[in-house]
Queue: 2 jobs
Job 1
Amino acid sequence: MRSNRGFTLMEMVVVIAMMGALAIGVTQFINFAMKIYLDGQQWGQAVSQHRYGLQRLSRELRDAVPGSVAIANGSAGYCLSFSPIEQSGRFIAAPMLNSANQVSFYRMSCCVGNDCDDCFSSGNGAGVALLNGYQLPDPLPTVASSQCDSSNLCQMTLSANLADGDYSPGQRFYAAGSTVAYCLNSSGQLTRSSQGSSSLMADGFANDLSQCNLNQRDNAHCPFLEQPPTLNRNSVLQLQFWLSQADQSQRFVQEVQIENLP
């Protein structure tokens, strides 16, 4: 007659040891998967929190007056400044013959009645930009008056004489708005300033501004880098911001072309 045989002590110890090792492995796998999930959530939240400010900066840069972009380091941090385009048109002569401070141009849709003063007042008197080899005078001349005739030809009188030069081959001119500046300070805050007011666009950037050198076009620490325009390429602005989450740092780079050709 056969008797029922149970587990020996050694067999139970081996089984318990194997189950413990398996439990540790499963726990580590679950912890690793949870860490990946949480890190992904943190990165997603960090990127979404900064997306608005960066999208607005990119959108405004695409509508900047060509030649108006400037990058500088000052008390507010590293700043990218530019003049937005309020209106644009095509000129006939710049300057007019024997009138160094006058420009003739085709009537624009924003003109009202016999003048186009409203086209230039929307920029709060920031000025009129006519490119001369991608160079703009500082400050821009403002429009003192404008008049149009019945044939839809107009002329504007500027506050300063235009320098002699080869102006825009496309005969384009721009009514520039008030200067806009985006600045990143050492505290990681990205602010937008215009007409004396400033607002916080994003916070928590981890750029090491002490390592920024604007003379190095491949410098990884500068938030703003510019590749000037050439005869066959638009001006390109490189935006690069560092974010730190979950004990890791990541650089986000975006290139923006200023597509308004002269």
Note: The helical segments are 9-62, 117-121.
Job 2
Amino acid sequence: MKTITILIADDEAEIADLVELHLLKEGYRCLKAYDGLQALEAVQKNAVDLVILDIMMPKLDGYEVTRQIRESQHMPIIFLSAKATDLDKIAGLVRGADDYVTKPFNPMELVARVNAQLRRSFQFNASAKAGQNMLEAGGLVIYPEERSVFLYGSPVELTPKEFDILHLLARYPKKVFSSDNIFEQVWGEAHYDGTSNTVMVHIRTLRRKLGEDTNKNKWIKTVWGVGYAFNG
């Protein structure tokens, strides 16, 4: 059986050690980094399955580390941060994180979130290997197994969550999903007070990347008071 490797990146050694202790009990292999550059180096040199990442780190902050990781890799990233407002959480999720845990934190809750993200990641990879057909609507083409999107033949660079939202909507054309529906299916957890804003910000960015300001096709339709639907 493959050993699952988790990178813990936090400039506070006590926190990194605490997280490592609980993950080792679950049978995971752990790597640790204490600044952003060390975190990137660890991802580049090792087959990392999930990253637990502090935001405020020396040399490179967690946002920049996430941006660089997302240029080539799609493993789950969980922010573990003292920045605890809803706006902070939304900013973290929009910048490419899959989950956000605030400090101080319950180590067992963090382990549960790690397990949930790994489960979702492995289920997606298994589905991809089984083979999935591309989704196409006009000039928009989605390749689920490659997690790639093309618009009129040109690649569209999406974050993992933007891709997941588009893929969810495109699989069920015309079906209306509420913000809570989208959040529960894409983030894999029940809604919280900032759910609507989180989804709205992702939808807004996704629309911009799909060129909805310049192309006549409106891929994502807002159904006022209800939610969103794919208009392909």
Note: The helical segments are 13-25, 36-45, 62-70, 86-94, 107-130, 160-171, 179-186, 195-209.
